[in-house]
Amino acid sequence: MEQKTQEEDQIVTPWEVAAEKGGKIDYDKLIDKFGCQRLDQSLIDRVARLTGRPPHVFLRRGVFFAHRDFSDVLDAYERGEKFYLYTGRGPSSEALHLGHLVPFMFTKYLQDAFKVPLVIQLTDDEKCMWKNLTVEESQRLARENAKDIIACGFDVSRTFIFSDFDYVGGTEASTCNLDYFSDVSIYFQEIFKMHTTIKCDMDPAGLWFCMVLLFEISPVSCHTCASSAFTVEIIVQFLLQEHGQDCKVVGIFGFSGEDHIGKVSFPPVQVDMLLAAPSFPSSFPHLFSGKDSLRCLIPCAIDQDPYFRMTRDVAPRLGYHKPALIESSFFPALQGETGKMSASDPNSAIYVTDSAKDIKNKVNRYAFSGGQDSIENHRKYGANLEVDIPVKYLGFFLDDDAELEHIRTEYGAGRMLTGEVKKRLIEVLTELVERHRRARAAVTDEMVDAFMAVRPLPNMFS
Amino acid sequence: MGLTKEQLLARLQELQIVFSQYEHPVVLTVEAQDKKQRFYIVSALAETKVDLKVLSQRLGLGKGGLRMAPEEALAEILQVPLGCVTPFALVNDSARNVSLLLDQGFKSQECCFFHPLSNDMSIALNARDLDKFLNSIGKTPAYVDLEANPTVGKDQPPDLANLVPSDAAVLAVPVEKQGSSQGSEKIHISVNNQQNAVTGYICRMHHNDTFRPKLSSRNLLFVHCCDGQSMVLMCIVDLSLASKAVKPSNASSTKEKSSGAASSSISYADTDKFVEEILEKTKSIVLSEIKEENAEKYREQLATLVSNNISKLGVELKNIATIFKNTAYTEGFKAGIHHQPKRT
């Protein structure tokens, strides 16, 4: 099944990211299409003022560049109303690369700067279902990933890490196994069959997502078929009521109007059953009981926006604030700006387990250069900073604004060569990876247990 | 003939140096390779990482200057039996040209264990008392940060150059060269007695090696190194004995099992180490900035420059502090879940 938007230019969905005809992603267009807002300089200055420290390098360089309702969060913060952070990872593999670290590095900054608590979700259930892993393997991967996440420097007295298998739903989770999920999915497929008569072009993915959403949030236990049917009925009615023929759901996940509900084959989407719940403070009674008006801020990559749009739609009806989003652009692969990094190609990314030699080798051999093909041409025309990867990476990880500016000027004018830029990048990355490795070595299994323990966090706002 | 153990102990008592002693039978063999004449004893704490290349540079011997020493040198110069390298060997006249480098970490320890010229016994005394003894034999103790790695170049002279002995000792028995060994060989010998089992590892190291004594809770590590220009005789001091000295043997054996896993996390929440690291990093910034040329260039602003650079250190220090906090919290958490509530 093909997933295309109405315009054929660029494709940005939670499952596929592709630029227009091999160029680069147009983020302005993306913001327009998705309907989120630009994170402008005034907001950045406001953050600096409220937190009393310089804004994070990712803000200064426009890595985190879009948001939804971030200014509301800041307004509330100024009035003394705090918020909590929510981010997560699908633990698909043991190897983490720098692109994975970006949202966590930024989240750590937010935690330290605003002094707020953080919940981190490890969607081991999602990966288990879709990657055919056993539950045990999935949980093991989740714990390994948790160690790398902890190594980013989160404060244990303010951070709660949970894996879906362990935490969610209480009794449901503790007896959770793969069969449970496949039963549910089969069940829902049957529901779909029953609703082929619905006129509105509700795509299976959207309907699935809605059902799952309310499935988890609803206090009604959904073990029995009867109650599940009841829930589904409610959702379907709700959607029909709200959207009628004009179902919004179609646009969000990138499905075209033709896909109809009669298609029983399960849509190849990675739907996280529990993505919505952590956006609501009631999901964490041991942390936020009685604080139903606590706002949630979600740092994520912009391709996750569709997931949270659904949640934002539902939130007011459940009596919660819409979760706010702060969104980043994509971390480019070493070989160039053709999309996201891929864990399947080891040379497309720098991994946290890479040695100094590996880093040097990868950057020198695979980092796409915007320099000219010969030194004479380079001196004459300068480098193409738009496509040059080393300069882009330095934009992420070189903290010193003045030095970056200097490099961009000199390299762009042709006075500095690619080799020098790469050399500086290698230094910066090696230092970063080394720091991470050192912190990772300090993370023990007991520490993971401590972070994942369902415990109160008495000082989470101080 | 060198001093015997008894004579040394008597001498220590004369100087009113307090020490405690433990008897144990030990046999260790050592293999090394040597080319030349200047000798050093480097005494390091178990956890100290010592890079021979760095030390060699800091002594002004170039990068490959230090290597393992042969057992003949032990016998001849230090006049101690095999496996018995100890700072106390300097009491012998034959060792007068041996330079002694001591780990500055000794100073912060309550006491350290050394062999008193014989390896069937160890004695524990603290750094002050060691100094007392060394001064009494006319040696100045040189405490060195063995882990530091300052740049040595034309502008920065080797900082330990003054520790190179002025006269070379002459070996009566020249030793034939051996092929240089790649990597290290470990020969494990262990000995038991009731209270303190001593395990020794002998390593033959290539001169490029950085070595870090790998210990379980009760080890003594002896390493000998030699090279083209100098010989290094090393004895690593085991501290853990000091803390467990008075424990009954069954308790010490359980500690052995858990210490492997726990020891790594304990060091991350070790207050002393934490503060040391902060001070080291700050000092190295200050020292690197306060130089002749900077003083001229910046004059009054030098203080501000140094101060700014120290502030930049903030990020790194915060990372270390977070690790510290998380580790300490984890320890408390673990204790909490194993806590046995009072019976009412």
TrEMBL record, chain A:
Q: Origin, by domain of life?
A: Eukaryota
Can you name the source organism? Rehmannia glutinosa (Chinese foxglove)
Q: Please tell me whether the keyword Nucleotide-binding is annotated for this protein.
A: yes
Q: Which Gene3D superfamilies match?
A: HUPs, Tyrosyl-Transfer RNA Synthetase
Write the Enzyme Commission number(s) for this entry.
Answer: 6.1.1.2
Q: Which SUPFAM superfamilies match?
A: Nucleotidylyl transferase
Q: What is this protein called?
A: tryptophan--tRNA ligase
By sequence similarity, the record places it as follows: Belongs to the class-I aminoacyl-tRNA synthetase family.
| Top EC class of this enzyme | ligase
PANTHER family linked to this entry: TRYPTOPHAN--TRNA LIGASE, CYTOPLASMIC, TRYPTOPHANYL-TRNA SYNTHETASE
Pfam families tied to this protein:
tRNA-synt_1b
TrEMBL record, chain B:
Kindly indicate where the leader peptide sits in this chain. none
Taking every annotated instance into account, which residue ranges of this chain make up the domain YbaK/aminoacyl-tRNA synthetase-associated? Answer: 22-133
**Coiled-coil residue windows:** none
Any Pfam family from its record, for instance, is: tRNA_edit
The UniProt similarity line reads: Belongs to the PRORSD1 family.
Protein known as: YbaK/aminoacyl-tRNA synthetase-associated domain-containing protein
State the species of origin.
Answer: Rehmannia glutinosa
